[in-house]
Write a structure and sequence with these properties.
The two termini are 16 Å apart. The chain is globular, with a radius of gyration of 14 Å. Helix content is 28%, strand content 29%. A 6-stranded mixed sheet has the order 1-2-3-6-4-5, with helices on one face. It has a single domain, classed as RutC-like (60s Ribosomal Protein L30, Chain: A, 2-Layer Sandwich). By secondary structure, it is of the alpha+beta class. It has helices spanning 10-16, 43-61, 85-92; strands at residues 2-5, 20-23, 26-32, 68-75, 98-103, 114-120. Strand 4 (68-75), helix 3 (85-92) and strand 5 form a beta-alpha-beta unit.
Length: 123
Amino acid sequence: MIRRIHSGGEFEKKVGYCRAVVANGFVFVAGTCAQGDDVPKDIVGQCKSSLAAIREALAEAGASFADVVRVNYYLPDMTEFELCWPLLVEAFGDNPPAATVIECNLITPMDRIEIEVTAALPQ
């Protein structure tokens, strides 16, 4: 069975995707940038917002950050990534996932970070 989780974000309909898909014992959370009407301009605020949206999607799927096995970080400026490290350590705690960091353009020029995760559903 496949279950799709929608956040209602503006790009879901524009681009044709959903926030997360639950399939075969895993939760695949789409790349997530800062959310909401008042998006922070700085990378730390955007990282917090992205993590909050991911936390919600994981919870709706029945998982948490402790279940994340893979994370991909996308940034237009790699020099800013270190500012996010304390937030990431706090989110993943004693359960760090395998990780990749890629420097690239994001969907809008104002985006400073996009985070994508895959989690295993708890048994």
